[in-house]
Automatic annotation (TrEMBL):
Keyword Repeat: no
Membrane topology qualifier: Multi-pass membrane protein
UniProt record similarity statement: Belongs to the binding-protein-dependent transport system permease family.
Alphabetized UniProt keyword annotations: Cell membrane, Membrane, Transmembrane, Transmembrane helix, Transport
Natural source organism: Streptomyces piniterrae
CDD domains noted in UniProt: TM_PBP2 (cd06261)
Segment forming the signal sequence: none
Residues covered by the ABC transmembrane type-1 domain: 87-441
InterPro entries: MetI-like, MetI-like_sf, UgpAE/MalFG_permease
Protein name as annotated: Sugar ABC transporter permease
Domain of life: Bacteria
Length: 451
């Protein structure tokens, strides 16, 4: 007799015993799973399912919650100008922000793959992800400040501008009231009487900033000069008082570097620039009988850069801050995908004579397509919910131009005109916008699992 046959029930008995055990365990597993899943299901129901169902229900009622309006709130989504602006801005955000962030992440990941300091560069680019949206909004509110003394963006822009264009020497300066020198339009000043070579011209100005004449020399009276129309331009102001108007008193400062033009019949016939002592000289043959003009370029306000947070540029400016934060996220994911690209394919293409651009366009990008889709879809979902940056960066004068649906949802539900019915309708509409993107993402995940 074999050992196997000597066992109780033989092999068949053991098999039936194991089947019964598996069946008994399998019968209890759904209940055990339900017990462990119950807390998570309760939380999902309380934090996800209930708010969604209640939002759909609340969107069918008016602001008070008592009057049933049906789809009226949804109709207002497309009739209210503010909400339509928010919808347009959301389209811009969804198209631009994920595309630019993904493109920059791809470029950074590819370019830093072969350099020694690539890891350090990736760390620096990824660091903004450690900053909250609130902190990033405060940072970029300062970066985009209009004052070049505070805003980094305008400090750089003004520096570049002033490199190629000379600033006005005396911004804000002007003549005394009822003086012979008066306004001639466009910010320029012109004498009311014609000039003669025998009589030196005096062109006093006031309202000059002290820092503009701190190192200026004392003004000198211009004397007659053969064959020339002469004159002096100076700051007609004596510290401590006591000076006489339209007279060059001792200690009054010269205004050097000003352009003086002689104008006849609306045409400039001669021009000169004031010297360090404020004097100037024009050829008498051309300037005799003309009127003198100080062009507006002498007094133009200092260039303060670009109005980054104005109605025209506020949305691109905020998108720039978003890209600053999320380009590092895209770079890290794409770099991880790039590490899995077979190097033999790239080397084979190079051996066959393909250039780096061809390798990148025809091999690297197609192989990275699944990763690029993941990054793009993730950023699109994130952008549809953008709120913090717009709420913090956009000033009150431009918030309407920078409006997005998430911000409009907050304003409609909790702002000055509280209308929870309209706010709920916006929330449901946002959910409907996110669902197609989530569906595409889920299909992609299922296809990858099948592979």
């Amino acid at each position: 007799m074999s050992v196997r046959s000597g066992l109780p029930g033989g092999a068949g008995g053991a098999g039936r015993l194991s089947v019964r055990k598996r069946g008994r365990l399998g019968g209890t597993r759904p209940w055990i799973a339900a017990v462990f899943l119950l807390p998570a299901l309760v939380l999902l129901g309380a934090l996800v399912a209930y708010p969604v169902v209640f939002s759909v229900y609340r969107s069918l009622f008016d602001a008070s919650g008592d009057g049933f309006v049906g789809l009226g709130n949804y109709g207002e989504l497309f009739s209210d100008d503010g909400i339509r602006t928010a919808l347009k801005n959301n389209v811009v955000w969804v198209v631009v922000a994920p595309s630019v962030s993904t493109a920059l992440g791809l470029i950074f990941a590819v370019l830093t793959e072969r350099v020694r300091w690539g890891t350090a560069f990736k760390l620096v680019v990824f660091m903004p992800m450690a900053i909250s949206m609130l902190a990033a909004g405060i940072i970029f509110r300062l970066v985009y400040d209009q004052d070049p003394e505070r805003g980094v963006a305008n400090a750089v822009w003004v520096g570049v501008h002033d490199t190629f264009a000379d600033p006005a020497p005396f911004p804000g300066a002007k003549p005394r009231p009822r003086a012979d020198l008066g306004r001639s339009g466009g910010g320029a000043f012109m004498t009311r009487s014609a000039v003669r070579a025998a009589d030196p011209v005096r062109l006093p100005l006031v309202a000059v900033r002290q820092e503009d004449v701190r190192d200026a020399r004392r003004a000198a009276p211009a004397g007659p000069r053969p064959g020339a129309v002469t004159g002096t331009v100076w700051l007609d102001f004596t510290r401590g008082g006591g000076g006489r108007p339209d007279v060059i008193d001792g200690g009054e400062k010269a205004l050097a570097g000003l352009t003086v033009e002689a104008v006849k019949d609306g045409r400039v016939v001669a021009s000169a620039e004031t010297a360090a002592d404020g004097t100037f000289a024009l050829p008498a043959g051309k300037a005799e009988g003309a009127r003198l003009r100080l062009p507006a370029g002498n007094f133009a306000a200092p260039y303060n850069g670009v109005d980054w947070l104005g109605p025209m540029l506020v949305t691109p400016a905020i998108i720039g801050s978003y890209v600053w934060m999320w380009a590092g996220f895209a770079m890290v994911l794409i770099a991880a995908g790039l590490a899995g690209v077979p190097r033999e394919l790239l080397e084979a293409a190079r051996v066959d004579g393909a250039g780096e651009w061809q390798v990148f366009r025809r091999i690297t990008v197609p192989l990275l397509a699944p990763v690029l889709v993941v990054v793009l879809v993730t950023l699109m979902i994130n952008v549809l919910k953008i709120f913090d940056l717009v709420y913090i960066i956009a000033p009150g004068s431009s918030v309407r131009s920078a409006n997005v649906l998430a911000l409009q949802l907050f304003q409609s539900s909790f702002g000055t005109d509280v209308d929870e019915g309209l706010g709920s309708a916006i929330a449901v509409f946002l959910l409907l916008l996110v669902l197609p993107v989530m569906y595409v993402n889920l299909r992609r995940i299922r296809k990858e699992r099948r592979r």
